[in-house]
Structures are given as structure tokens and as C-alpha cells.
Write a structure and sequence with these properties.
heterodimer, A: 753 residues, alpha/beta, seven-stranded mixed sheet, five-stranded parallel sheet, 17 helices, elongated, B: 298 residues, six-stranded mixed sheet, two-stranded antiparallel ribbon, 43% helix
Chain lengths: 753, 298
């Protein structure tokens, strides 16, 4: 804690010390620069009384002390320091009072130790107590994180409230979606404080001092905010009020995840929940229960590791197709909002796949027969796959119902018109999947022109032309897949040799790859310069290119048992929705795009059912030519269901899981050193107990400048110094009975003349 | 140039040779008094005495010779042949000067003028230069040539050595025989009580004493306001680093006390004490001398 008064920072302290030491320095220099004089009357320089010499030295020291103190006080006065003194509201000097109250309403403020009040309740009570002491004519701003997030310009537009309005706003504060940052709050508060045309200005930050509220260790920024506060003449009356619990302990679920592949009905799904803790490490087990909808389907107890973390895994089957509401729960503790974590999981019963090829009945270049058979096995002894694929064959893209499908597989495409290419690109960018078997019947030049477009299209790589088939049917050099990326969700099963070894596949012919987009991933290779499976993203969709055909002409893959699981996993991967688009945190915006045919014009309707079950209206936006419904008021954790319709056939529904950010669950407090730096840099005080603030609410803090007193004392000291210096130099009336030499001369001269 | 300007010490110092200085000072001073030293009322007949070998022939009273046929010389009251001794302090401290004239130069000029005046009154003039001891002693004689010799010694004198005025005066008191006029010119930077005792010694030997206390104006004003290293010219190893402002009062008190002791001691011994500064006009000193002489005659 700084002992310096407000208005004096570290540079000021240096000035003060320099001013204080200046007379001593000058004294030393003066002594060193003494001139040498031959002086015959040495006998008169030494007093007979030795104590008088001591007194002179004492007076000399006193003189230097007086000068040092005077200089110190002058420098002090020039720095214009001030202190805050409490002044009773009832007896305070006439003049209005301006208060900026910033209430941290982030989720962590809901923490409540057993038998105690929550940090937000403490903050609310302190705010109301403070506002209670305002009188008519006083002004107040009450800010929450939502006001801070709207930016400086918007915050400046906030009208200062009359006392009644301020009290109402403070009383209605609830935890919301915002993330509180102390420096940002001080900055905004200083800005607003400067606009208050009141005689006294105060800023109060009511927060739980959570570590995440002060992530900055940048002293420059701290000093900058301090300067802003001083410029607003509010630095001395700025208080950061600790409303939190220093001993807070919290256990929470920081993540709930499913696999990256599309989940089918009646399929065993593996779910993983990660449990973390803050504060003292918890003892015992973490009891995690899993709910699908409102039904508990599993429960596990897992031990915490040394860092207070635990991982829980569940398997379950989801019968009903559609969006599943999956929730992992812990026993409620001090912060209940983060004891449940939600996951919106789309369960598919059928995946409509558009298969485009030259034929589906016969083998041959561009044939889709093997793909069709793999997606929909017709042999009696084959069991149906967990996810039922519904392949629809088309000989070309023109006229095909692309948008009705989830995935498009191309095995043969001799020609591609511009309109079909555009339709395919729109389909992919909207979230669809494209699997391209680049065999002999695919025109590379057309694909390059229409779908790669120098890297701006949807294809992840530019394909080259194949060399003509060797005469007599002789085959080229044999190649085998290598460098298989088994960490990829679609290929992870091939990491275990017993499940299938892709390197046993023999490839005879391959379409050369001329260029790979920088953001594309090569999932498997055939040689150093010969990628085999390449994946890229385009918009919300995914595209996978296989540089061999789906027929046995290029490789023996279609004839091996590996073809079916590889194709299924690639298609399920392509069909899986973007996980992040449905897993949101408080404050994120829900967005639901309409099908391409939809328009947000007349008749369009979008609404949201929030976690409370309340129907709330959503708004519309237009992105890349497609209408999308958006909803931003996600201040409560839970499931949000959004429904949008822009006419017949465009009904769309989206389920979103909104969770508390893990950052809000970590209740570690700002380290003392950081708090000290904050105090020193900004000049703000820290009140450790909100009740302490309440007790002092009957008083207001008034800035009392120190410089008049300092200047007056300095003037007195200088006068004393002058008098002492004159006394020491003998400029005073001589004592009776002793004549000065001049007097002696006069007497002698008078008698002798 | 008017007569009074010759009495200004700085102007006098520029005149050069002491003989000229002495003559100029005395003549200027006498003109200022508006009477002639050779026609003063103080030259009064006292008695006749028989001629003796060595007496000047021009002093024989021829009228009495005509009446008595014997050689008689007329004796006058002012021709009592006062033996004056000019004692000049030539210690190192006398070399100090803050202006154009050092204390030694001032004392030399004043001594020369007094010598000239004494000789004009037909007194015998002697000289002694004193510092740590009697550096030079010239017995009194009443001839102009003798006085010129004293001037030569004075011109050659330089300020050196420690001040032990009391010892030197005591030594001189032993050398002087009979009634004498002893004129002491010194800054008296010695133990004032010892100085008074030494003057008492002279008085005990029936000598009249005139004490000229010569100081530099800076020694009275003490114009030092900052840190200064004061070095004793008589013993350079002794120095004192003090702030002039702080010791000024002490200095002036000590100096005033020093002067008071001297003045009180001189008054008790019926010795004329005169404090002079090197800026004081010589008129003051010469007037003091004449005043002293006239009072003694009465």
C-alpha cells in the first residue's frame, strides 16, 4: 500500500527527494568551493567559548534542515497532492455529488458460500446503501458489464440518473453474460465521471476481485487508466470494493464433448465430461450424472487428480432422431450455474447422400456402383449400418436436388456447367459435405476452373490431368497409402492394425495434385508428392478429395473390407454439423441460417424458446446472400431452441447449448502483488469488506488539497531560515556594553581629532 | 592637486619615495593649519649656555659676545632635543591589504611624515622595525641625512615574520635612555594585555608613548559571506574553513573586545591611542600627534 497521498506517483516521489536533498547538496558543493584568503586576524575567528562553536554548528544543521524542509514542501505543493477526507452527508459542504457505480454482474458474482450472501447480493446492498445517501441534485451512473461492453461512445451516451432511477437500476441488477474487467471498468467510469457536472466525483467498483477480472500485468496500461482517473478528478475518490469471498471453493464441469462424427439413432455414443475445481483441491470423488432431456441415463464417480481435475466418460444410445439435449450435472455447490454443462447433439436416423457418377449398375470409369453398394448393402447377410444412408444416384449435377442432401459424393463427372458448380458451392458453404473420387471420369480442368479457382473455390487442391492409360493394359508402378492421419475423427479406427491397415491397399493409378491449399489437410499420402486423401473447409461445410476412383481400375480399395468403413466414416464426418456452431457460451449470439430458398422478407418469422421456456423474438440478418435469424440475449445458461421460417418449405430449427464460460467458474482471486500494482498505478483504494463501505456510506469523500498548507509552512520555514541566517551572520543590534569596531573608531576619532 | 588630496592614503601611496611623501604630507598638513611651523609661538627663549666644542657657530649669540666677549649660545624651550623613536611593526600581518594600501605602507608613510615633522621641530628621530623581535634599530638623531637613512630603511622594509609586539617593545624599552617619545605604528595583533604591559614598561622608563593602531577596513567590516578558508599569513599551516556569515558576529565581538582592552589600558597609562584604518586620511594621524604634543607641553 502506498503511503503517498493522492496525486503523487513514483515520479513525484523522486522530485520530492531531489528537492529535499538539494540544499544539502548545495551546502556540500559550497563547502568544497570555499575560496582561500590570507587573513591576519585569525585570533578573532575562534570564539573563546567552545560551546558557542557547537551552537553554531547546531544552528548550521538547523539551517540546512529548514531549507530542506522548505524545498520539500515547495515541491510537495507544486505537485498538488490531496487527500480524501470523509465528510458527513448531512454536514457536507454545499455542492452536488456525482457517483459512478460499476457493478460486476458476471456469473462468478453468483457464488455463495454456505450460509452467506452471494457476492452480487453484497454488491447490490452496498450500491443501494451508497445511493441511499444521495440527495436531490446529486447524479449517478450505474453501470453493469453490458454497459461496459457497449463501448466508450455508447457508455458516454448513458444519461446520468436521478437518485431514484439509479436506485431502481441497482436493485434490478442480476448476473448476466458479461465478462468483467477492472481496468476497462475504471476507464469507462473515469470517462463518465468526467462528464458529471457535480462538485465531487466518486467511482465505486463492486466486484468479487476474481483473477480473471484483472488479467493485465501491463503497468503502462495501469498508469494510463490512473492518468484518466486523475484527469477526471476522481482518482482519490475511487474505491474497488471487494464483495467476494476470499475462501471461495468451486467445482464445475468445464467441458462436455461427443465424437466428431454424426451420431445415428440406436448408436452407442461416447461422451466425455471434464470436471475442474478452483480454490482448495476437493477431496473424494466427482459424482457426475448424465441426462438426456430430463432423463438421467448414466452416472459415474471419478477421482480428482492432484490438480483438482477429473474426467468422466459415458456411453449411451440415443433413440430419437433430431436434436438431443444432453446435460452433465454435478451436485450443486456455491456457484450453481456451472454445475451443469449442456450439449446439443444432433442425432440422425438417415443421411441423404447424393451420389453422382456415370453409372450405378455397371463397373467402369466413373461408376458409382461400389459407393452405392457400400452405403446401402443389399446382401442379406450384411447388417445395416448404425446410421442409415439413403443414397440417391444422379448422372450429373444439373437438375439434381443438391440442397436436399447432406452429403454429395462424386465418382464420375465428365462435365460441369457453371450453374451446377455454383449450386454445389453454395451447398458446401452452407454446411454440406462433398466427397470427390477423382478418377478417370472426372474432368480435372473443369474442376480447377469451376471449383478450385486458384484456391478461392471449395476444392482443397488443384488436380492435374492423368497420363493416358498404358497400352496393352499394363499397369503403372504400384503404390500403397502411407502417413495416414489417424488422429482425424474419420480415420482414427485405422490407427489400430487389427481394425484395418490402409497401407495394404494397392494403388495403380492416381490423379496428380498440382497444388494444395495452405489451409487444407492431407489425411493420407501415396508418395512424397502424391497426396491421396485431402480435406478442406469451405464456409460451414467440408470437402474431401480422394485422388483415386471408387472403382477397381485405380486401386483395389473397393474390393477390400476397408472400403466400407472408410466410406462410412468419411460420409459421417462430412455429415456431422459444426460442433462449435451449437456449443455456445453466455453472451454469444445464436444464428440460424435459412435454406437457400428462404428469404427474410414478408412473412418471415423467427423466435427463440429460452431456457425458461419463454418465447422470445429473434431478429434477421443477411450474410453472403443468405438470410439468418439471430438472437443475442443469452444471459442465462441452458438450451435455446430457435425456429425460423420464411415461407413454405423453409422451416428450420436449431438447438443451442449455452454454458457458463469456464473462466467465470475459476474463482481464484487477484494476487496481492497485482492488486498492489493496481492501487499504486491508478490511485484507487481497495475496500476489503463491502460492509465497511456500507458503514461509511453516511459520509462522502471530499478531496482536500494539501498545497495551501504546504506552501504556508514552506513560507514560515523560509522566514525562520532567513531570520536564523541573519542572526548567524551578525546582522542584528549589538548587545549592550559591547562596541563594534566602528563604534570604537568613532570614539577614538572623536577624542583625538 | 589641492593640499588635502595629498593626505588621502591611496594618493599618497602613489607618490613613491618616502622622502617626498613625508614632505608632501607635512607641508600639505601645515598649509591646512594656516600657520608656519618655523614661526610658531612655541619657540621661546629659555636661557644662555656657554659655547662648547661641536656646537654650531651660527647658533652663537653675537650680541652677548659683543657685550661680554665670551661665546654663549641661546637655548629655546622647544629645543629641548626630544628623542623620538618611530616603532613600525613589519610582521607578516602588516602586509595585508584589501585596497591599494597595505597596513605596512600606511604605517611607513605615516612614520615618514612624523619623522619629517619631528625633524622640522629640531627633534632627534630614531627608528625601530619590529616583528618577532627588534629587526632593526636606528638611534635618534636630529639631522636630515639621518632621516633620509630612516626613509631608506622604511622603503626597503617588507612584511614578514610573526607578531610579537609586546616582546619587541619591552626590548626597546631597555635600549632607550632618558625621556623619549615613542610612536608605535602596528596592527597590534598580539595579546592586548601583553601589549599594554609593554607600554607600561616604556612609561615606567619615563617615555611618552603614542600608539597608532592600524587596521585594514576589511578587518573591521569582515565582508565574507560564504564558505572561506582563512589562512594565517604568519603561519600558513594554520587555516580555518568556516562560513563567513556564521563567524562574523564572533569576529566582530572579539575585535571590539581587543580594541576595548587596548583603549582602556592606554587611558590608564596616559598613552594616546589612535585607531586608524588604511583608508583614514593621514590628517587624522598627524592631528592626533600634534594634539598629543601640545597637551604634553601644557
Amino acid at each position: 500500500m502506498s503511503i503517498l497521498p493522492d496525486g503523487i506517483g513514483e515520479p513525484g516521489l523522486i522530485w520530492l527527494l531531489a528537492a529535499g536533498f538539494l540544499p544539502i547538496l548545495l551546502h556540500i558543493l559550497d563547502r568544497r568551493r570555499a575560496r582561500v584568503v590570507d587573513w591576519p586576524a585569525m585570533r578573532f575567528l575562534v570564539p573563546r567559548d567552545r560551546s558557542r562553536l557547537r551552537r553554531i554548528k547546531l544552528l548550521e544543521a538547523l539551517l540546512i534542515l529548514l531549507r530542506s524542509l522548505a524545498m520539500l514542501l515547495i515541491a510537495y505543493a507544486l505537485l498538488k497532492p490531496f487527500s480524501r477526507v470523509e465528510s458527513s452527508v448531512r454536514t457536507r459542504a454545499p455542492g452536488s455529488r456525482g457517483v459512478v457505480l460499476v457493478i460486476d454482474d458476471s456469473q462468478s458474482m453468483d457464488y455463495r458460500a454456505q450460509g452467506k450472501r452471494s457476492a452480487l447480493e453484497n454488491a447490490r446492498e452496498a450500491a443501494l446503501d451508497l445511493l441511499e445517501d444521495l440527495i436531490p441534485g446529486d447524479r449517478a451512473h450505474v453501470l453493469t458489464t453490458a454497459d461496459l461492453a457497449s463501448g466508450v461512445a455508447a457508455a458516454r451516451d448513458l444519461p446520468a440518473l436521478e437518485t431514484g432511477g439509479a436506485r431502481r437500476k441497482a436493485a434490478d441488477v442480476r448476473t448476466g453474460a458479461g465478462r468483467f474487467r477492472i481496468l476497462e471498468a475504471l476507464d469507462r467510469a473515469a470517462e463518465l465521471s468526467a462528464l458529471l457536472d457535480t462538485d465531487a466525483r466518486e467511482i465505486h467498483l463492486l466486484t468479487d476481485l476474481q483473477a480473471s477480472t484483472f488479467p493485465e500485468a501491463d503497468s503502462t496500461r495501469i498508469r494510463f487508466v490512473g492518468e484518466r482517473l486523475r484527469a477526471a478528478r476522481a482518482a482519490s475518490a475511487t474505491q474497488i470494493v471487494d464483495c467476494g469471498d476470499p475462501g471461495a471453493r468451486n467445482v464445475f464441469i468445464s467441458a462436455l464433448e461427443a465424437g466428431a462424427l454424426a451420431v445415428g439413432t440406436d448408436e452407442t455414443v461416447e461422451l466425455r465430461a471434464r470436471v475442474e475445481s478452483s480454490g482448495a483441491p476437493p477431496a473424494g470423488l466427482a459424482n457426475v450424472r448424465l441426462f438426456v432431456g430430463d432423463v438421467e441415463v448414466a452416472a459415474v464417480a471419478v477421482p480428482f487428480d492432484g490438480a483438482g481435475r477429473a474426467n468422466a466418460s459415458f456411453t449411451c444410445r440415443l433413440d430419437a432422431p433430431g436434436a438431443a439435449r444432453i446435460t452433465a450435472r454435478l451436485a450443486p455447490d456455491g456457484l450453481a450455474a456451472d454445475d451443469a454443462r449442456r450439449l446439443a447433439l444432433e442425432v440422425l436416423d438417415r443421411i441423404r447422400v447424393l451420389v453422382v457418377g456415370t453409372t450405378v449398375t455397371d463397373e467402369g470409369p466413373g461408376s458409382a456402383r461400389n459407393v452405392d453398394l457400400a452405403l446401402a448393402p443389399r446382401a442379406r447377410d450384411l447388417t445395416a449400418p448404425p446410421v442409415i444412408f439413403r443414397p440417391v444416384f444422379a448422372r450429373g449435377l444439373a437438375g439434381a436436388e443438391i440442397s436436399a442432401s447432406r452429403v454429395v459424393i462424386i465418382t464420375g463427372l465428365p462435365s460441369l456447367d457453371r450453374e451446377s458448380a455454383e449450386a454445389l458451392e453454395r451447398f458446401v458453404r452452407a454446411g454440406g459435405g462433398l466427397l470427390l473420387f477423382a478418377g478417370e471420369a472426372v474432368d480435372s480442368a473443369t474442376l480447377d476452373r469451376e471449383l478450385y479457382r486458384g484456391g478461392r473455390g471449395i476444392l482443397p487442391a488443384r488436380l492435374g490431368s492423368r497420363s493416358p492409360r498404358a497400352a496393352g493394359g499394363s499397369r503403372a508402378e504400384e503404390m500403397h497409402p502411407r502417413d495416414v492421419l489417424t488422429s482425424h475423427p474419420a480415420l482414427e479406427v485405422f490407427g489400430a492394425p487389427e481394425e484395418g491397415d490402409l497401407s495394404r491397399i494397392t494403388v495403380h493409378r492416381v490423379t496428380p495434385v498440382r497444388e494444395v491449399r495452405p489451409d487444407a489437410a492431407i489425411l493420407a499420402r501415396l508418395g512424397e508428392d502424391s497426396p491421396w486423401i485431402i480435406e478442406g473447409r469451405a464456409g460451414s461445410g467440408k470437402v474431401i478429395v480422394v485422388t483415386t476412383s471408387a472403382s477397381p481400375d485405380d486401386s483395389d480399395l473397393p474390393l477390400t473390407p476397408l472400403f466400407l468403413p472408410l466410406l462410412h466414416r468419411l460420409v459421417r464426418h462430412l455429415a456431422a454439423p459444426e460442433a462449435s456452431s451449437r456449443a455456445l457460451e453466455l453472451g454469444d449470439v445464436l444464428k440460424l441460417e435459412l435454406p437457400p430458398a428462404g428469404s427474410a422478407e414478408a412473412g418471415a418469422e423467427a423466435h427463440v424458446i429460452d431456457p425458461e421456456g419463454t418465447r422470445r423474438e429473434a431478429s434477421w440478418t443477411l450474410e453472403e446472400g443468405r438470410a439468418a435469424a439471430v438472437f443475442g440475449d443469452t444471459r442465462a445458461p441452458g438450451f435455446y431452441e430457435m425456429r425460423a421460417s420464411a415461407g413454405a418449405g423453409t422451416d428450420t430449427t436449431g438447438l443451442y447449448a449455452v454454458n457458463v464460460p469456464a473462466e467465470e467458474s475459476r474463482l481464484e482471486r487477484i494476487p496481492e502483488a497485482a492488486l498492489e500494482a493496481l492501487r499504486d498505478g491508478t490511485g484507487a483504494g481497495v475496500t476489503r469488506d463491502a460492509r465497511e463501505l456500507s458503514r461509511s456510506m453516511g459520509k462522502t469523500l471530499v478531496e482536500r488539497p494539501h498545497w495551501p498548507l504546504a506552501a504556508a509552512i514552506a513560507a514560515l520555514l523560509l522566514m525562520a531560515e532567513l531570520a536564523l541566517a541573519r542572526r548567524m551572520s551578525g546582522e542584528r543590534i549589538p548587545r549592550r556594553g559591547r562596541a563594534t569596531p566602528k563604534e570604537a573608531t568613532a570614539v577614538a576619532g572623536g577624542r583625538l581629532s | 592637486m589641492n593640499a588635502s588630496s595629498y593626505l588621502d592614503p591611496a594618493a599618497v601611496a602613489r607618490l613613491g619615495r618616502l622622502e617626498i611623501v613625508a614632505r608632501t604630507l607635512v607641508e600639505g598638513f601645515v598649509k591646512g593649519l594656516h600657520f608656519s611651523a618655523s614661526k610658531g609661538s612655541s619657540i621661546e627663549f629659555a636661557e644662555h649656555r656657554p659655547y662648547a666644542a661641536g656646537d654650531e657657530i651660527r647658533r652663537i649669540d653675537w650680541r652677548t659676545f659683543g657685550k661680554t666677549d665670551r661665546f654663549y649660545l641661546k637655548e629655546y624651550e622647544d629645543e629641548t632635543n626630544v628623542r623620538a623613536l618611530l616603532v613600525v611593526d613589519t610582521s607578516a600581518s602588516m602586509g595585508f591589504r584589501s585596497g591599494e594600501v597595505s597596513k605596512l605602507r600606511y604605517a611607513s608613510c605615516l612614520a615618514a611624515a612624523l619623522g619629517h615633522l619631528l625633524l622640522a621641530q629640531r627633534d632627534a628621530v630614531g627608528f625601530a622595525a619590529v616583528a618577532a623581535r627588534v629587526e632593526r634599530y636606528v638611534p635618534p638623531r636630529g639631522t636630515p641625512r639621518h632621516l633620509r637613512g630612516i626613509f631608506t630603511i622604511l622603503e626597503a622594509a617588507s612584511a614578514s615574520g610573526a607578531t610579537r609586539l609586546a616582546d619587541s617593545v619591552n626590548a626597546l624599552a631597555e635600549r632607550i635612555h632618558g625621556r623619549s617619545l615613542v610612536v608605535v605604528l602596528s596592527d597590534l595583533l598580539d595579546d592586548p594585555r601583553a601589549v599594554v604591559r609593554s607600554i607600561a614598561h616604556l612609561r615606567h622608563r619615563h617615555s611618552e608613548v603614542i600608539l597608532f593602531h592600524i587596521l585594514d577596513p576589511a578587518e573591521e567590516d569582515f565582508p565574507f559571506t560564504g564558505w572561506t578558508v582563512f589562512r594565517d599569513p604568519e603561519s600558513p599551516s594554520v587555516s580555518l574553513r568556516v562560513d563567513g556569515r556564521q563567524v562574523r558576529e564572533i569576529y566582530r565581538e572579539n575585535l571590539a573586545e581587543h580594541i576595548a582592552i587596548l583603549r582602556k589600558g592606554c587611558a590608564a597609562l596616559e598613552v594616546d591611542y589612535s585607531l586608524l584604518y588604511t583608508r583614514s586620511p593621514f590628517e587624522t594621524a598627524l592631528a592626533a600627534y600634534l594634539d598629543s604634543r601640545s597637551r604634553r607641553r601644557r
